[in-house]
């Protein structure tokens, strides 16, 4: 169904553009090959918008404005216009390249000559830009109208012997679903519960019968912790690759060490030498490999050339046009951020609303897992400093780092240092908390 709607949208755009071009009196559009380029640009921009905007749920506002204000904010969004312009340039370049490959056998040298017409280039850019901005508006409006009202029921407080399909569609089950989109919906709804829905928060903190067990809180918190732990293990693996060896995590505190036994790999030695203390770098080694290290590492740094406005513009364009992969995918990063925000706000509101103390009984593994992820992020960036990777790959990791710092600071402000002292945390984890929390 989704692809049918997309196909109809693309077909409508192509037909409208064809009618517009044939009704115009422009001389250079009298032949067939400029129309061929415009058709390619429409197809390129349509598929670019589909695969670029893969319906990732990125919600940054807790209180949504009214519909009129929302549409006005879309129109006045300068960042969206700039990003869409860069993407339209990328689509225009791809359509021109495909036009040269496919148009030369069909139209000959005329397909190359028409590329020097500024009016054609401007038309192709405008068509791609309008197609991309229309689809981005469409996705934003769909998120606001369709995805916002999606909620999941909380489980009943008593056990049902033979539950129906409707009774099984609860948030406790959906947060553990295998379908990625359903899992996104569930975690976004869980964050809504943690932030604004006090009635459903009471159900999270309630005890189920028979037995008086905190099944709701245990299931939801375990699902959030599992999501955080999965990304933490992935970051440990990436750090091990940057170090040049495997990472071994011994205990809950964790200790990462790279395998430096193979001295035949100069790249591996270079990365590990850059992570050594300054005094260790200045030692004189008898090995030719280490002697080369000493000369390379202690070389006088060159003064960096001041960055001009043109350099900044070129860097931004290169960043947008690059096809680099993220260290942590946007899907996983957004899921972790939703889990962190949900856990932190539920812990904060439990100070006044948790009548049975179900949250404070399980705080130690939750806080410990958050600190483990912070340590893994710190280890990754330490090893990342010695590797030649672009900063664009680390955007999702930085977003997770900011969410973790904000969550820990909110918990510390609400409960104070007495909460962390009551937990069985290591001295290293206490130092982490003091360095993270502004109120510590």
Automatic annotation (TrEMBL):
Query: Where does this one sit in the cell?
Result: Nucleus membrane; Nucleus, Nuclear pore complex
Question: How does this protein lie in the membrane?
Answer: Multi-pass membrane protein
Q: Which GO terms describe its molecular function?
A: protein-macromolecule adaptor activity
Q: Which UniProt keywords apply?
A: Membrane, mRNA transport, Nuclear pore complex, Nucleus, Protein transport, Translocation, Transmembrane, Transmembrane helix, Transport
Q: What is one Pfam family matched by this protein?
A: Ndc1_Nup
Organism superkingdom: Eukaryota
Q: What is its main location?
A: nucleus
Please list every transmembrane segment annotated in the UniProt record, as residue ranges: 26-47, 109-139
- Which GO BP annotation is one of this protein's? mRNA transport
Task: List the GO terms this entry assigns under cellular component, sorted alphabetically.
Answer: nuclear membrane; nuclear pore transmembrane ring
The family line of this record is: Belongs to the NDC1 family.
Question: What's this protein's name?
Answer: Nucleoporin protein Ndc1-Nup
């Amino acid at each position: 169904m989704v692809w049918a709607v997309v196909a109809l949208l693309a077909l409508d755009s192509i037909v409208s553009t064809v009618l517009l071009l044939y009704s115009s009196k422009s001389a250079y559009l009298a032949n067939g090959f400029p129309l061929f380029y415009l058709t390619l640009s429409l197809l390129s921009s349509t598929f670019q918008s589909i695969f670029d905007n893969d319906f990732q749920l990125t919600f940054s506002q807790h209180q949504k404005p009214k519909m009129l204000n929302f549409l006005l904010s879309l129109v006045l969004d300068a960042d969206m216009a700039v990003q869409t312009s860069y993407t339209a340039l990328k689509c225009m370049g791809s359509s021109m390249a495909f036009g040269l490959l496919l148009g030369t056998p069909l139209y000959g040298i005329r397909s190359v000559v028409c590329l020097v017409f500024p009016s054609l280039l401007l038309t192709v850019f405008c068509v791609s830009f309008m197609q991309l901005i229309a689809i981005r508006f469409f996705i934003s409006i769909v998120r606001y109208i369709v995805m916002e009202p999606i909620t999941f029921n909380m489980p009943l407080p008593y056990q049902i012997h033979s539950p129906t399909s409707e009774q099984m569609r609860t948030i406790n089950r959906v947060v553990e679903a295998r379908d990625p989109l359903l899992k996104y919906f569930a975690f976004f709804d869980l964050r809504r519960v943690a932030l604004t829905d006090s009635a459903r928060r009471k159900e999270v903190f309630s005890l189920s019968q028979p037995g008086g067990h905190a099944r709701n809180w245990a299931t939801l918190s375990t699902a959030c912790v599992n999501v955080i732990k999965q990304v933490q293990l992935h970051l440990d693996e990436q750090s091990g690759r940057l170090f040049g060896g495997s990472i071994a995590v011994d205990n809950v505190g964790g200790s990462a060490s790279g395998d430096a036994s193979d001295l035949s790999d100069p790249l591996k030695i270079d990365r590990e030498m850059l992570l050594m203390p300054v005094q260790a770098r200045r030692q004189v080694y008898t090995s030719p490999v280490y002697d080369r290290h000493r000369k390379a590492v202690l070389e006088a740094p060159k003064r960096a050339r001041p960055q001009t406005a043109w350099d900044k513009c070129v860097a931004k364009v290169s960043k947008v046009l690059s096809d680099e992969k993220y260290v942590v995918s946007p899907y996983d990063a957004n899921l972790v951020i939703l889990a962190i925000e949900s856990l932190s706000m539920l812990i904060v509101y439990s100070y006044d609303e948790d009548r049975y103390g179900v949250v404070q009984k399980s705080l130690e593994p939750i806080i410990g897992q958050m600190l483990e992820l912070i340590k893994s992020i710190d280890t990754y960036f330490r090893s990342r400093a010695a590797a030649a990777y672009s900063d664009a790959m680390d955007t999702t990791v930085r977003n997770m780092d900011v969410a973790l710092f904000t969550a820990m600071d909110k918990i510390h402000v609400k409960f104070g240092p007495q909460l962390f002292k009551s937990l069985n945390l290591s001295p290293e984890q206490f130092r982490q908390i003091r360095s993270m929390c502004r109120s510590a």
